[in-house]
Design brief:
Layout lengths: L3 H8 L16 H7 L9 E5 L10 E2 L5 H8 L10 E8 L5 E9 L3 H17 L4 E5 L2 E11 L8 E7 L4 E9 L2 E9 L10 H14 L1
Antiparallel strand pairs: 1-3, 2-5, 3-4, 4-9, 5-6, 6-7, 7-8, 8-9
Length: 211
């Protein structure tokens, strides 16, 4: 069976009106309105990074690990028609952690469902690490560890540690044909911090309202 992540590498910018589509992907303007932004969560600061540099050619050296790249590390790889909204988030005046929230449209609800299944399988299969090329530089991922999740939003959570010591946690979830990905990193990047459940719940609630 062909990997959804592999297919999306070659077709992220190609759309269609196939009969299998059960839930149309959100448009760019709809994504931009659906993503959490300043004022949605008192005490948090939001910075729009939708126009920040992206790497749509990011690749895992091991094919089975590509869903981790396509749906978490560089979600722009799997964005349908390049539809993506991204916010950087901090809390308080002197934050010790930062979070990045990305919404991507996926081709259909069924494709988004399959994407989460592939991501879950990749987290299990790639625990001992893999090499990835991102922004033209090769990096070594030392290990991947699945995290327990409690949101009830078909959430996939995992911790990723680079060979050079950077530690990041991810949570990826689905609402219809949209994937929401949140990453969490300590300011030092040398220790893990949790993905705030409050951000997860608030984002899913706003996505549900968008439909």
């Amino acid at each position: 069976m062909t990997s959804i992540a592999a297919v999306l590498l070659g077709a992220a910018a190609c759309g269609g009106d196939g009969e299998s589509v059960r839930d149309r992907p959100l448009s760019q303007s709809e994504l931009s309105r659906a993503v959490l932004t300043q004022g949605d969560m008192p005490g948090y600061k939001f910075f729009d990074e939708s126009r920040a540099k992206k790497d749509r050619s990011a690749r895992a050296a091991t094919r089975s690990c590509q869903p981790i790249v396509a749906f978490a590390m560089a979600p722009e790889v799997s964005a349908y028609d390049n539809r993506l909204a991204r916010q950087s988030i901090t809390k308080g005046e002197n934050p010790d952690a930062s979070y990045q929230l990305t919404l991507t449209s996926i081709e259909s609800e069924s494709v988004a469902e399959e994407a989460l299944k592939e991501l879950e399988s990749a987290v299990s299969a790639c625990g001992s690490g893999f090499n990835v090329t991102i922004y033209g530089e090769e990096e070594k991922i030392r290990r991947i560890t699945a995290d327990m999740t409690t949101s009830g939003n078909s959430e996939i959570g995992f911790s990723l540690e680079y060979q050079r010591g950077i530690k990041i946690r991810y949570a990826v979830m689905r609402q219809g044909s949209t994937l929401a990905r949140i990453s969490a990193a300590h300011q030092s990047m040398s220790e893990f911090v949790a993905v705030p459940q409050r951000i997860i719940d608030k984002q899913i609630k706003k996505l549900k309202a968008a439909k």
